[in-house]
TrEMBL record:
The keyword S-adenosyl-L-methionine is annotated on this UniProt entry: yes
Broad class of enzyme this protein falls into: lyase
The protein's name: 7-carboxy-7-deazaguanine synthase
Domain named Radical SAM core: residues: 13-193
Cofactor note: Binds 1 [4Fe-4S] cluster. The cluster is coordinated with 3 cysteines and an exchangeable S-adenosyl-L-methionine.
């Protein structure tokens, strides 16, 4: 759908330069999704893997975020192999609702009530990042924290339109449950992509 070189705004790798490849297509249907224009895969032009890798290599950064849309609706084996062969780190942003493909240096799963993550994806996760829309999402977060490997980093991220309301609740929750951390969409405050 689009590609851009920016700063990873969210989660564990916040603040690090990264090239984003946003793949079209998503069937999860989060009503608060901040990139609904990604949902229809056919609405966006196709590019070859060679073109994508060449575009990445035009920039000095070697971290590549594959996001979407829901990137796991595509077989990511060839794309991630080509990126790693070119010396890049591959970072995945996924809901986990489709089978895992590809070779990953970092996997971030953001589980969704609208289409829950698959156990096999949760088993491969480095970072669990739960969007908090209302108080019921804390229980949803804990239910998924119980399904990920012990070393997984745990994040609670305010849903953007509700940030003023839910951020204080996230702060209180993290103070009481300190294995969780706050994740903010810092790129939106920085006004960068
Ligand atoms: C647009 S999604 C694309 C990747 C994948 N479909 C997913 O949901 O993880 C990228 C990240 O943005 C988060 N996100 C989407 N809309 C958001 C919103 N309105 N507020 C906060 N985070 C949001 C998602 O939960 C996910 O962690
Ligand atoms: N800067 C920036 N960081 C991000 N981290 C995850 C994003 C995404 O949409 O997947 C995102 C994004 O859209 N922009
Ligand atoms: S899974 Fe990700 S891309 Fe799909 S609707 Fe939800 S937030 Fe948007
Ligand atoms: Mg985004």
């Amino acid at each position: 759908m689009e590609q851009f070189y920016t700063i990873q705004g969210e989660g564990f790798n916040t603040g690090r330069a990264a090239y984003f490849i946003r793949l079209g297509g998503c069937d999860v249907g989060c009503h608060w999704c901040d990139v609904k224009e990604s949902w229809d895969a056919e609405a966006h032009p196709r590019q070859s893997i060679d073109e994508l890798v060449a575009a990445v290599l035009e920039h000095p950064g070697r971290n590549v975020v594959i996001t979407g849309g829901e990137p796991l609706m595509h077989d990511l084996t060839a794309l991630t192999a080509a990126l790693q062969a070119a010396g890049c780190q591959t970072w995945l942003e996924t809901s986990g609702a489709h089978p895992l493909s590809g070779s990953w240096d970092w996997v971030c799963v953001s589980p969704k009530k609208f289409k829950a993550p698959l156990p096999a994806v949760l088993a491969a996760v480095h970072e669990l990042k739960v969007v908090v829309f209302n108080e019921s999402d804390f229980a949803w977060a804990e239910a998924h924290a119980a399904q990920v490997p012990a070393h997984t980093r745990l994040y609670l991220q305010p849903e953007w339109s509700r940030a003023a309301r839910v951020t204080p609740a996230i702060i209180d929750y993290v103070k009481q449950n300190p294995r969780w951390q706050v994740s903010l969409q810092t790129h939106k405050y920085l006004d960068i992509p």
